[in-house]
User: Which sequence fits this backbone?
């Protein structure tokens, strides 16, 4: 009797599960077919021009002008240059001296598109935004609309700010700081300094009225910083717990003023126009790479080495600026998993000091890391003049990075492989500008799109 009952239940369950299995098989087949139908990976076109040695110390961002010339933001060299079409000659638009009339006064500045073919040079140190016309000449100077948001306008790991069709400035902020638990009274456990959530707002600010609202949220890297005290009660090493393989979102502003957010969880694009209309595109066909524990451990070890190198760079910066925190260093290093912190124990009189605390990178347990390598990482998306998105993927290749090109509907239309050791710094009409830094120094290369 019981056997017959079990047989009937099993048959019923099997009948219910059969459509589910069929659907799963169908979904897998469709996904496999989409991956097979992806555009073939093609190499970037011929490199036409290369900037001469010694002209640049870095290539942070490139803004293409209608006549073929380009404006280059050289962050390391603290200079803004206007290069001829063939990249052979340059004119200094701003540098660290007063000779140009426009100084690159701070340690960080950004270059972003503005109205039409004009550009905006944002210099946080002076709280100014210089409008450069389509020829690279200074048209006018505006003040930063909300001084408290200055550090978010420098780009880099925060993404590139931009304007919508109503000339409202969009940029990424930082989520509310998580209040740490109180330190143990007996000094036995760790003292938590700071922690931030894994999501951050995209702000939209009217540069005239200075009114600001939040239009979207994006997923960002997060970390937890803590330290322990030695037997004398002094702070020991700073422990930084950060995910070495964070699943993040990337965002940019396309030429029609829409906000495009590329979601890292499933690789699709969310669009937001100036009227507030939101549209989501289908998922991008992508061959996700599974990560076993050995691969996760290798990535974690590599991330620790990189973090140690960044920490050494910051330590030297503290030596060069004793008693102070170099401007923007803390804000820029946080998203990369490195933390700068003032000594909470303080110096004479118990006041906090800017003594550098040695840090130690700590990864979460392997079972808390993603099982698949994210399709892209922080700041991995750019927009071209045709309104397409260029997403720098993490696809493995010994020939060079592979970019996925998505059209204005979020559809995959091209896959482009650039040269090894390069990163796209800007896009013009039919031209790709790549920055490279190797034993020969920093250079800018201009290549044909095809």
Assistant:
């Amino acid at each position: 009797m019981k056997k017959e009952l079990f047989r009937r239940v099993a048959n019923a369950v099997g009948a219910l599960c059969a459509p589910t299995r069929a659907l799963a098989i169908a979904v897998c087949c469709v996904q496999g077919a989409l991956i097979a139908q992806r555009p073939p990976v093609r190499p970037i076109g011929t490199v036409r021009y290369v900037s001469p040695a010694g002209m640049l110390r870095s290539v942070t961002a490139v803004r293409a002008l209608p006549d073929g010339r380009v404006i280059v933001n050289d962050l390391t060299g603290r200079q803004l240059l206007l290069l001829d079409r063939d990249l052979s000659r340059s004119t200094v638009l701003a540098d660290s001296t007063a000779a140009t009339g426009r100084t690159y006064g701070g340690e960080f500045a950004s270059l972003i598109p503005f109205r039409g073919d004009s550009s905006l040079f944002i210099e946080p140190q002076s709280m100014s935004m210089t409008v450069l016309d389509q020829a690279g000449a200074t048209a006018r100077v505006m003040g930063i609309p909300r001084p408290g948001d200055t550090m978010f306008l420098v780009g880099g790991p925060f993404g590139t700010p931009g304007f919508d069709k109503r000339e409202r400035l969009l940029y990424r902020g930082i989520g509310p700081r998580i209040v740490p638990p109180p330190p143990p009274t007996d000094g036995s456990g760790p003292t938590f300094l700071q922690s931030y959530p894994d999501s951050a707002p995209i702000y939209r600010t009217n540069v005239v009225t200075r009114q600001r609202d939040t239009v979207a949220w994006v997923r960002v890297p997060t970390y937890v910083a803590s330290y322990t005290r030695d037997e004398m009660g002094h702070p020991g090493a700073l422990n930084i717990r950060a995910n070495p393989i964070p699943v993040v979102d990337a965002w940019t502003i396309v030429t029609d003023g829409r906000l495009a957010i590329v979601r890292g969880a499933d690789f699709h694009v969310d669009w937001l126009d100036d009227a507030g209309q939101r549209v989501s595109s289908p998922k991008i066909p992508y061959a996700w790479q599974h990560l076993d524990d050995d691969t996760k451990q290798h990535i974690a070890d590599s991330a620790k080495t990189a973090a140690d190198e960044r920490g050494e760079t910051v330590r030297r910066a503290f030596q060069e600026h004793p008693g102070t925190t170099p401007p923007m260093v803390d804000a820029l290093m946080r998203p990369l998993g490195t933390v700068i912190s003032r000594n909470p124990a303080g110096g004479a009189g118990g006041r906090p000091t800017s003594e550098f605390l040695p840090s130690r990178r700590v990864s979460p347990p392997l079972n808390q890391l993603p099982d698949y390598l994210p399709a892209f990482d922080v700041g991995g998306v750019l927009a071209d003049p045709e309104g397409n998105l260029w997403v720098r993927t993490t696809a493995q290749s010994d020939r060079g990075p592979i970019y996925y090109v998505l059209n204005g509907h979020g559809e995959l239309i091209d896959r482009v492989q650039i040269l090894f050791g390069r990163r796209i710094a800007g896009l013009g009409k039919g031209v790709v500008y790549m920055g490279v830094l190797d034993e020969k120094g920093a250079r800018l290369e201009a290549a044909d799109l095809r």
